[in-house]
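User: Please fill in residues for this 384-position structure.
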């Protein structure tokens, strides 16, 4: 019996490249489709597994997509335009139209694909679940702009208005997205699931947590909070922390996140439903900043900028019960993962800092704003 054929779109990226390695190791025949987006790959040559076939091209190009899909059994659709950038049309064009192009080609050309696994994101949730003492588990809407503007960052119960405590967020929580990236990911997710029902080909959207690890772009100022903090510290600059630093993130190590795709290919447990993929542990942004300062430059401390980003989730720790039901469990703890990542960063040579200019762009477009309560940026080495 010949090995199954996998197409990994975005297979030169952070998650995609690790997924390719894992598929090759599991004796899949692997094809990569990647356009080597300059924002992601500007600072270093891409990591391309020599045992995988590589096609340079764009998921929006019908000729290229048709060629890439030929003879494929499972599509691992990782390609996306990502981050917290002010572009609108490009997010929709790449993330939604690109996904539609793949799905349309599979069906119209009668391709042999038996399953599509889609890289979605925890960003699709409007806000993380909370528990109210009076009303129990609640799914609040996005925080009101007028409260953020006066520095009230905590999430209130949507029924009584009292401050609620963060809870694990299950896949049944309301989704839709509060910024253009999130909207594009949710649109691709809904489009794919509907197409799967119509075509009879199973689709599995994997809602990734904040993913980090070796091969994460250090030249993309929107690539992820860990990379942003690291590049600032290595250039003698303190990490800039938005809000009060108590917002939390679920941080998933890249090999754990990539491995979920192999589970999705092997099981029918997740067919037709979104699946949270993460550690299930929330870490405050301020705690993360302090950990990285301690590792890289103890003379630096995080700075609270007195700003907030429009459409940002306060705290989201995914409920990973659905993932665990198919025996997917993370194996790399945060400190271990950070050590592996920092070891890799140390081998990358000179690293620039580009978040300062990116932040200025976000301010100019109104996506990054100061609170009325803010005066001057202040240092803080404690976690509230």
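Assistant: Residues filled in for all 384 positions:
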């Amino acid at each position: 019996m010949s090995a199954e054929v996998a197409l990994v779109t975005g297979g030169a990226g952070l998650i995609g490249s690790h997924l390719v390695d894992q598929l090759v190791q599991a004796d899949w025949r692997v094809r990569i489709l990647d356009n080597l987006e300059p924002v992601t790959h500007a600072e270093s040559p891409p990591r391309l597994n020599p045992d995988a076939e590589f096609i340079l091209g764009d998921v929006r190009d019908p000729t290229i997509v048709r060629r890439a899909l030929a003879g494929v059994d499972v599509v691992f659709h990782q390609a996306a335009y990502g981050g917290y950038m002010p572009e609108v049309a490009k997010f929709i064009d790449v993330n939604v139209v690109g996904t539609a192009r793949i799905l349309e080609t599979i069906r119209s050309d009668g391709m042999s694909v038996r399953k599509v696994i889609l890289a979605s994101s925890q960003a699709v949730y409007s806000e993380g679940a909370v528990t109210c003492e009076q009303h129990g588990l609640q799914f609040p809407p996005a925080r009101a702009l007028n409260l953020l503007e006066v520095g009230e960052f905590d999430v209130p119960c949507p029924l009584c208005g009292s401050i609620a405590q963060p809870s694990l967020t299950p896949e049944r929580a309301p989704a839709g997205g509060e910024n253009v990236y999130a909207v594009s990911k949710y649109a691709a997710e809904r489009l794919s699931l509907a197409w799967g029902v119509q075509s009879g080909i199973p689709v599995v959207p994997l809602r990734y947590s904040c993913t980090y690890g070796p091969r994460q772009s250090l030249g993309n100022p929107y690539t992820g909070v860990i990379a942003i903090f690291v590049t600032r510290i290595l250039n003698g600059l303190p990490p800039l922390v938005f809000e009060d630093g108590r917002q939390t993130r679920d941080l998933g190590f890249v090999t754990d996140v990539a491995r979920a795709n192999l589970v999705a290919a092997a099981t029918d447990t997740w067919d037709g439903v979104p699946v949270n993929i993460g550690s299930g542990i929330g870490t405050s942004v301020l705690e993360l900043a302090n950990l990285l300062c301690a590792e890289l430059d103890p003379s630096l401390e995080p700075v609270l900028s007195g700003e907030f980003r429009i459409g940002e989730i306060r705290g989201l720790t995914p409920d990973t019960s659905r993932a665990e039901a198919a025996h997917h469990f993370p194996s790399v703890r945060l400190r271990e993962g950070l050590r592996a990542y920092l070891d890799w960063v140390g081998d990358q040579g000179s690293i620039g800092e580009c978040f300062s200019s990116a932040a200025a762009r976000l301010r100019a477009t109104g996506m990054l704003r100061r609170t009325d309560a803010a005066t001057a940026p202040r240092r803080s080495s404690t976690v509230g």
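For context: The chain is about 35% helix and 20% strand.
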